[in-house]
Amino acid sequence: MAETGVIRVGVIGGGQLARMMVPPAIHLGLRISVLAEAEGMSAARAADAVGDYRDPETVYAFAETVDVVTFDHEHVPGEILRELERRGTAVHPRPDALQYAQDKILMREKLAELGVPIPAWRAVADEADLDDFIGLHGGRAVVKTARGGYDGKGVRVVSAADEVRDWFTALAEDGRGGRLLVEELVDFTRELSQLVARRPSGESRTWPVVETIQRDGVCAEVLAPAPVADPKALDEAARIGATVAEGVGVTGVLAVEMFETRDGRVLVNELAMRPHNSGHFSIEGSVTSQFEQHLRAVTDLPLGDTSMAAPAVVMMNVLGGPEEGPMPVRYADVLAAHPRAKVHSYDKQSRPGRKVGHVTVTGDDLAEVRAEAEAAAALFD
């Protein structure tokens, strides 16, 4: 801790998640620093360093300037983080927990060990093994790269192993004996997300379960709380989230993404150990946002109330953005037409399919709130 008594939090990664940690850090009296991958990223205003998070010396030098290290993404190599701990730096989430968000095969093994419901799966090293799994599960399956995929990247729905031959070739050329993850193609009715925050001393808090709606593999919309179709399913999602958070020993915010199936099951799809797109609604929609809570958790401060601030909250991602420039070029029109909408720009240039910001609307009636959020976000197209 700095001589002033102010806790110094270092965030590795300069994206929009780091950007959205800055306001609550200021309110909490924390000093926040960011190690950005390049100049001009979303969190540039807090970027005290720019460099490669895969380079050990870059990360070690950054860590020497802070008291606690946390993350905008899960991609920092585990061996670097373990060395930080050996050097006495607090790392949250700890590398032994973060590994389950970094490697999907490790994640499936751990979730199976915890007895959490998951799709049928297998780690496959060659095309014959993959074709065998596909044949046993209805002729189609989902194949994922074990590391690095997000927002639909590193995921393919296939009917034959030769559709991911390039992935097997890349693994063979890598020379480290890697495998792909294959899962049954789940027949689901909707996707749910449970956010949990947990601090090192063990206190944890959960937000209400939310429904997420995807477009081309990218989260487009979040309904909070999730409309009640089956109360048992929502109760099961909350139970699963708490079980996973405790079982992996996460510190900070954890998002457990799940499928609700047609036959009434709830199955875990993915884990994210950081603030997550499905929790952006909480900035206006909760007493304590996921960003404030993450900072409280990683600095081991008492956690805040996660109650809803309104009966209905809808968050719409702005995907792509205006052709003529970044989101603020449309602000005057959007804010005039939708004064209830809260607009968040990530300070990114427009690009098809890119998350450049989001819009949140709160209110009493879900249908009305959703319609306004959709209309406001559409004005950025």
Summarize the entry for a quick read:
The protein is an alpha+beta fold and 381 residues long.
Provide structural commentary:
The chain is of the alpha+beta class and 381 residues long. 31% of the residues lie in helices and 27% in strands. The chain is built from twelve helices and 18 strands. The strands form three sheets. Strands 10, 11, 12, 13, 14, 15, 16, 17 and 18 form a nine-stranded antiparallel β-sheet that branches. The radius of gyration is 21 Å and the shape is globular. The relative contact order is 0.11. The model has no long low-confidence stretch (mean pLDDT 94).
Give the rounded overall mean pLDDT. Answer: 94
Radius of gyration: 21 Å
Number of strands: 18
Helix content: 25-40%
Strand coverage percent: 25-35%
Q: How does the major sheet shape up? A: 9 strands, antiparallel
What is the molecular shape?
globular
Unreliable segments (pLDDT under 50, ≥5 consecutive)?
none
Helix- and strand-based class? alpha+beta
Protein traits:
381 residues; alpha+beta; nine-stranded antiparallel β-sheet; five-stranded parallel β-sheet; 12 helices; 18 strands; 31% helix
Question: Any chance you could write out the topology, listing elements then pairs?
Answer:
Layout: E1 8-12, H1 16-27, E2 31-36, E3 47-50, H2 56-63, E4 68-71, H3 78-86, E5 90-91, H4 95-102, H5 104-114, E6 121-124, H6 127-136, E7 141-145, E8 155-158, H7 165-174, E9 180-184, E10 188-198, E11 204-206, E12 210-215, E13 218-224, H8 231-248, E14 252-261, E15 266-272, H9 282-285, H10 290-298, E16 312-319, H11 331-337, E17 342-345, E18 355-363, H12 366-378
Parallel strand pairs: 1-2, 1-4, 2-3, 4-5
Antiparallel strand pairs: 6-9, 7-8, 7-9, 10-11, 10-12, 10-14, 12-13, 13-16, 14-15, 16-18, 17-18
